[in-house]
Write a structure and sequence with these properties.
Layout (H helix, E strand, L loop, with lengths): L1 H14 L5 H4 L5 H22 L1 H5 L3 H29 L2 H7 L2 H12 L1 H4 L4 H29 L4 H31 L5 H25 L16 H29 L2 H6 L2 H15 L5 H19 L12
């Protein structure tokens, strides 16, 4: 449990980086950010794949198909939605909407994975979920107040950002559940090799997506200079950093956590990503978080700690034949 929790914490710290990059590159289309990030991930995965080529050959066609599905939904579509949401409504709103993932994943997993992981009784799960939800609401309230006090809010653009963030939540509710299914069904496989396989699977998908972004002009003719845009050095450096740190290393840490923790509890530990993203946002903003934000993060942490103490009941024994 402790090792799995530390791996989940490391994944959250690395994944928090993805929330600040769209703010550092506001001129760049979200589709370009998503495809370029995962093109970098795929290229970084190639030498790692060469080192693990013997183990990668052991994967079946069905395994590679699953890796491509996970890469498409959990990587490309997720970050497309998230980057678009951040550019339309700022960093705080998408961050706190993504912060509901622990609640969404825990509830979904508790409904679908009880036979495998055991069921966390709703009476024991509810207090931790309530604490997490309350923490998200506190942070959201504080950040909305800050946004209104510093700039005019376009309700339509803000609502579109919220809707896109919900799309990201849907993608990343599906991804960890399906990813955990594969890891649990293939306990003999290395989580590192599976992370590399997803990187290799991402490469053709991201390359095809980048080609589409390049060939299809933006609505209204934005005049954006493909493929590297107005800040080529910063763009390339940030894409490589995300590909290595957030995509490959973060995925590796999450796979290690997924093999050690029940999915219901692992899903709640995505709260570390929310806390890291908010911390990075305040560093970028150059200010300390308000008291309500600090209180919200503490309440989130209390919900996670309570959930870790509420172990699942053993799965029901199979009936004798």
């Amino acid at each position: 449990m402790l090792t799995g929790t530390l791996f989940a914490l490391a994944a959250g710290l690395l994944w928090g980086l993805v929330f600040v990059v769209p703010l550092l590159l506001p001129e760049y289309p979200p589709a370009l950010l998503s495809t370029a990030r995962y093109l970098a991930f795929g290229l970084i995965a190639l030498p790692l794949a060469w080192l693990d080529r013997a183990r990668l050959r052991e994967l079946s066609r069905a395994d590679w198909t699953e890796a491509m599905k996970l890469a498409l939904v959990g990587n490309l579509l997720y970050y497309l939605f998230l980057a678009a949401a951040i550019q339309r409504s700022g960093g705080p709103l998408p961050t706190v909407i993504i912060g509901t993932l622990p609640v969404v994943i825990a509830v979904t997993s508790n409904l679908r994975d009880a036979r495998r992981d055991g069921r966390l009784p709703w009476a024991r799960l509810a207090p931790s979920l309530a604490l997490i939800a309350a923490g998200v609401l506190l942070v959201n309230h504080a950040e909305l107040q800050h946004l209104r006090s510093t700039q005019p809010v376009d309700p339509g653009r803000y609502a579109l950002g919220a809707a896109l963030a919900l799309g990201a939540v849907a993608c990343w509710t599906w991804y960890p559940l399906r990813n955990a299914d594969w890891l649990r069904d293939h306990a003999e496989r290395s989580p590192r090799v599976w992370a590399t396989a997803q990187g290799v699977a991402t490469l053709p998908l991201s390359a095809a997506g980048l080609a589409v972004v390049w060939m299809v002009p933006a609505p209204g003719g934005s005049g954006f200079e493909m493929p590297l845009g107005p800040q080529p050095e910063r763009f390339v450096a940030l894409m490589l950093a995300l590909g290595l740190l957030a995509s490959w290393l973060g995925g590796l840490c999450w796979n290690e956590a997924s093999q050690r923790l029940p999915t219901t509890l692992a899903g709640q530990l995505i709260v570390f990503e929310t806390a890291a993203a908010l911390a990075y946002a305040f560093v970028l903003r150059g200010s300390l978080p308000p008291a309500a934000t600090v209180a919200g993060i503490l309440v989130l942490a209390a919900g996670v700690i309570r959930a870790m103490r509420a172990g699942p009941q053993a799965p029901p024994a199979a009936a004798p034949h």
